[in-house]
């Protein structure tokens, strides 16, 4: 049955937006119905973020019209958008870690009594809102920084409810959640739909679309590809074709590479309860996958190897020789690179240019014995990596904060290639990037191991671990619970180890 305009809470027509050197959106149409989840798909750089920033008032369109509940509006700022019932839950949460849950929910709108904040009422109101979402296990008096990612996300949603949001935009909401936490999020989305809250849902996890979505709109290169219903005809392959304009025949382009000599050996590595007696080896030409549930100690192990944290016990060997690592710069000098899971906070300097980020970790090698940087040489080196990595940027002088997620990730990888690292630790290498960019990262990983590098790949995505690893280590509660060869590994065997099936036997 055809929906009428009475069901539309939002209609964006012929939205156009240009930035210097980039036509970000070309006459894009988008609408949203009452009580639906409208999934917005597209590769990184397709225009999704620009469209959302125009909707919430962060950007102004060059042309086009926005109607809310059938009436034309001009959204001048994010505050304007909030007053009109539009809230955005970004992938990087907009919360103040040192403030309590209640303070974050009512920030700037605290209930007052006799000129002072009414703390009792604020905590009661916060608790009531949390209870409406059935997450009243979250204490409104606790500091947000003490909460896990899933609970912080619930605080963001609660804050949106306190603003009486009728349109809730969710940007990669499941990127850092466990399966159980994702189920809880989907429960809340279904509950809010019944209250006529409408969702714009952005995700690179295409398997989620059929679970949570009602309709899908796909953007490509700033243009509308189409809007389709979520039904049995909307397969993952069809969504990929719409997103990238071609079939993606090989999602995991894994090639057989001869495994060579030992590159890295870790013996009895430990730090408190987070990492306990971890031992393994990595060889030339090998992708060593590390799987496990959130909190299993995977990232903590990587940080110990790289020198970002100090280990209490254990030894690290590179090419058979024990190394003493007290800082990341020591590891870099031994040819170890670490692509962190949080590229924006730990992998990049967002205010610096693309070229400066690429050479940042290799300055001692490029300009030995001098604190003076030669700009011409720096540009020559970074330009080569931009071309090799196919980083989409208007120029080397573009600040990296303005690149799409996928191109930011390529820039981080280019940074470590520039150091000539032969041991590479990739922590969640494809988190938050689209399917096309994922394949490019996988192809790059294959090229690196062909050249004799060794890669440790930490990933929460089971298909990625199974599709790209030569060997898989599974961690549980800070220890190695099991090791699986590629040909014997299955989702079931990995989960059995990850959930403690063999923890007692390690």
Name a few traits of the molecule:
18 helices; alpha/beta; six-stranded mixed β-sheet; 26% strand; Rossmann fold; 506 residues; 3 domains; single chain
Structure, described:
- The protein is an alpha/beta fold and 506 residues long.
- It folds into three domains: 5-244, 3-Layer(aba) Sandwich (Rossmann fold); 260-335 and 421-506, Rossmann fold (3-Layer(aba) Sandwich), CATH 3.40.50; 343-419, no CATH class.
- It has 18 helices and 22 strands.
- The protein has a six-stranded mixed β-sheet, sandwiched between helices.
- A hairpin with a 2-residue loop joins strand 4 and strand 5.
- It is globular, with a radius of gyration of 24 Å.
- Mean pLDDT is 89; it is low at 502-506.
Outline of this structure?
This protein is of the alpha/beta class and 506 residues long.
Q: Identify the CATH homologous superfamily of the largest domain.
A: P-loop containing nucleotide triphosphate hydrolases
Taken from the alpha-carbon principal axes, the silhouette is globular
Biggest sheet statistics: 6 strands, mixed
Quaternary assembly: single chain
- The rounded distance between the terminal residues' Cα atoms is 59 Å
Helix count equals 18
Our Rg estimate from Cα atoms comes to 24 Å
- Helical content class: 25-40%
Under CATH, the topology of the largest domain can be stated as Rossmann fold
């Amino acid at each position: 049955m055809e929906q009428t305009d009475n069901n539309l809470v939002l209609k964006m027509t012929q939205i156009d937006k240009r930035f210097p050197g980039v036509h970000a959106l070309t006459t894009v149409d988008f609408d949203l119905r009452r009580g639906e989840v409208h999934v917005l798909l597209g590769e990184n750089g397709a225009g999704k973020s620009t469209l959302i920033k125009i909707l919430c008032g962060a950007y102004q369109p060059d042309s086009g019209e926005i109607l809310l509940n059938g009436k034309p509006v001009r959204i001048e700022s994010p505050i304007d958008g909030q007053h009109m019932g539009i809230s955005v839950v970004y992938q990087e949460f907009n919360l103040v870690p040192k403030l309590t849950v209640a303070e974050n929910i009512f920030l700037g709108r605290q209930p007052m009594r006799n000129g002072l904040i009414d703390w009792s009422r604020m905590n009661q109101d916060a608790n009531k809102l949390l209870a409406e979402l059935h997450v009243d296990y979250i204490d409104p008096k606790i500091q947000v920084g003490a909460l896990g990612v899933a609970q912080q996300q619930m605080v963001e949603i609660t804050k949106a409810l306190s603003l009486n949001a009728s349109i809730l935009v969710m940007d990669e909401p499941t990127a850092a959640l466990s399966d159980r936490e994702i189920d809880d999020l989907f429960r809340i989305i279904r509950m809010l739909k019944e209250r006529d809250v409408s969702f714009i849902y952005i995700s690179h996890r295409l398997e989620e679309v059929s679970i949570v979505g009602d309709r899908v709109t796909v953007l490509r290169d700033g243009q509308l590809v189409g809007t389709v219903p979520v039904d049995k005809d909307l397969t993952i392959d069809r969504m990929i074709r719409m997103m990238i304009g071609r079939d993606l025949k090989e999602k995991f382009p894994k090639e057989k590479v001869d495994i060579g000599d030992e590159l890295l050996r870790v013996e009895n590595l430990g730090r408190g309860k987070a990492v306990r007696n971890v031992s393994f080896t990595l060889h030339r030409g090998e992708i060593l996958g590390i799987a496990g549930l959130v909190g299993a100690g995977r990232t903590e192990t990587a940080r110990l190897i790289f020198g970002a944290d100090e280990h209490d016990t254990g030894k690290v060997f590179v090419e058979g020789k024990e190394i003493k690592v007290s800082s990341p710069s020591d590891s870099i000098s031994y040819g170890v690179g670490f692509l962190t899971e949080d590229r924006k906070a730990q992998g990049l300097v967002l205010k610096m240019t693309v070229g400066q980020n690429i050479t940042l970790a290799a300055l001692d090698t490029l300009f030995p014995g001098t604190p003076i940087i030669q700009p011409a040489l720096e540009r020559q080196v970074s330009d080569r990596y931009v071309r090799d990595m196919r980083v989409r940027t208007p120029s080397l002088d573009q600040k990296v904060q303005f690149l799409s997620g996928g191109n930011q990730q390529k820039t981080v990888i280019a940074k470590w290639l520039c150091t000539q690292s032969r041991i590479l630790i990739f922590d969640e290498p494809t988190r938050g990037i689209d399917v096309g960019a994922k394949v490019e990262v996988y192809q790059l990983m294959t090229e690196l191991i062909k050249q004799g590098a060794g890669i440790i790949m930490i990933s929460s995505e089971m298909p990625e671990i199974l599709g790209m690893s030569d060997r898989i280590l599974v961690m549980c509660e800070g220890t190695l619970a099991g090791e699986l060869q590629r040909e014997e590994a299955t989702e079931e065997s990995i989960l059995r180890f990850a959930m403690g099936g063999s923890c007692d036997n390690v």
